[in-house]
User: Fold this.
Amino acid sequence: MARRTGVLGGGALGLTVAYRLVQAGDEVTVIEREPEPGGLAAGFRVGPSYLEKFYHHLFRSNRTRPRTARRRRLAATPAL
Ligand SMILES: Cc1cc2nc3c(=O)[nH]c(=O)nc-3n(C[C@H](O)[C@H](O)[C@H](O)COP(=O)(O)OP(=O)(O)OC[C@H]3O[C@@H](n4cnc5c(N)ncnc54)[C@H](O)[C@@H]3O)c2cc1C
Assistant:
């Protein structure tokens, strides 16, 4: 009979632990306080794309940072 396990938190760690426990044969319930899993790495849908909640991307509307990146010869790929 499968062991029943609860994992508190549906961030990267909780989801990885849950995945490993399922692989080992456990019946796992992930308890997450937010409506969506993902924690600090969570995203949300914007039209056809996904954006990170805590973003590390550039918007097309960001004028200064892409210009600075070009000056410093860093790759700048605007997300939207
Ligand atoms: C902008 C940004 C860029 C990053 N870039 C990188 C990178 O390049 N490489 C890298 O390795 N890492 C990166 N990180 C860090 C990485 O995202 C985090 O270390 C990782 O997501 C943490 O996962 P976690 O599961 O430990 O914690 P969290 O993501 O914080 O997840 C914890 C979860 O538990 C839930 N929770 C907490 N308390 C309760 C409760 N009492 N009941 C129910 N649910 C609860 C929370 O809602 C949350 O969903 C970045 C983070 C940010 C914000």
Summary: The chain is about 25% helix and 20% strand. The two ends are 49 Å apart (CA to CA). The helical segments are 12-23, 64-71.
